[in-house]
Specification:
Elements lengths: L1 H22 L1 E7 L17 E5 L8 E6 L8 H8 L12 E4 L17 E5 L24 H14 L7 E7 L1 H8 L1 H6 L6 E7 L14 H13 L7 H4 L10 H4 L7 E6 L3 H8 L11 H5 L6 H18 L8 E6 L10 H4 L6 E2 L2 E2 H9 L6 E3 L23
Parallel strand pairs: 3-5, 3-6, 6-7, 7-8, 8-9, 9-12
Antiparallel strand pairs: 1-2, 1-4, 2-5, 10-11
Bound molecules: 2-acetamido-2-deoxy-beta-D-glucopyranose (NAG).
2-acetamido-2-deoxy-beta-D-glucopyranose binds next to helix 2.
InterPro entries: PAE/NOTUM (IPR004963)
Enzyme class: hydrolase
Subcellular location: Secreted, Cell wall
Length: 399
Amino acid sequence: MSGIFQQWLPILILMLMVVLRIESFNVDITYVESAVAKGAVCLDGSPPAYHFDKGFGAGANSWLIQIEGGGWCNNVTTCLARKNTRLGSSKQMIKQIAFSGILSNKPQFNPDFYNWNRIKVRYCDGASFTGDIEAVNPATNLHYRGARVFLAVIEDLFAKGMKNAENAILSGCSAGGLASILHCDSFKALFTTGTKVKCFSDAGYFINARDVAGGLHIADFYSDVVRTHGSAKNLPASCSSRLNPGLCFFPQYVMQGIRTPIFIVNAAYDSWQIKNILAPGVADPHGIWHSCKLDILKCSGSQIEAMQGFRSEFLYAFSKIGASPARGYFINSCYAHCQTEMQETWLSADSPALDGKTIAEATGDWFYDRKPFQKIDCPYPCDNTCHNRVFDPHEHPLI
Ligand SMILES: *[C@@H]1O[C@H](CO)[C@@H](O)[C@H](O)[C@H]1NC(C)=O
């Protein structure tokens, strides 16, 4: 038995390597040099950047923008710490990145969008592309210009043909998923009525919940982000005209005002939200949550109970999305964060599913108006299609 296994093992490994290679491919970086003259720059003043894979065949005139995630910086200290990293400077970004999942160019991996123009916009401002402060303090050289970066990138893509798109999707994951919600209507407004425009947010539905110590950690944090970056004027006016702008970073206060069709993918036990909203380090000084945050199987009964409470709050905040069929959603009960950029969770033989539909199928059905999709999973641990995340204790918790 073990002899046979040993004999086949190298072949299995080889096959796995071949499969993994086909599943993703590398796409070169493009710097938007023309943005610099408009003051549309990354935190350190460098030009913004994206990775672009050209559409072909029937998809040649359709455009999918995927905004990269990577947390936020909320004050001078944290923005300085980010400034000279890939999340604050295009000088620090790697020159090629792998496209897979929703960015794949193969019909078997990405049946509805594989032949579209696919763009991954690099995140380099630290405020989900909402900031705009003219002044630059020479002592820090920090540029809070995310909103300008977003516009400059779109203008650059318009010049490359997106202006006359037949279909366009603004999507993103995590902080990028939040950007796709916050910019959804203003993105749609840039197109003529001839373009079918929709938005798509993966793991961007961050909720305003108390942490395990009873504090308002995330609300304070977002309020600092909005103040530091001067974001208020670039948040949806339907929210900022009636609420404190700091709150308008939360989708639950913004969604009601959004008029463009939008699809939300989120785990009700989103791992970033459990780690940073429910049980952030400041609310857990003794590290009781440490191993649970790394692996949901290590959570105690009372921690699971707290997470069930978080799910209830999530679903309440999510109910603000409304019932319109133009809004699609896929809310599963996994311990996950960002499920569309990885082939395993977007579309594969064992990827997450709700009522038998993968995220890729649900998204395609919704975009092309084949069928509405609005599904919320039963509570943990009912769903055996989940790919629950297990984190390395040394991993940086930004994404
Ligand atoms: C900046 O924000 C971080 C993270 O919330 C916090 O720990 C730190 O105290 C803040 N620093 C200042 C100077 O406000």
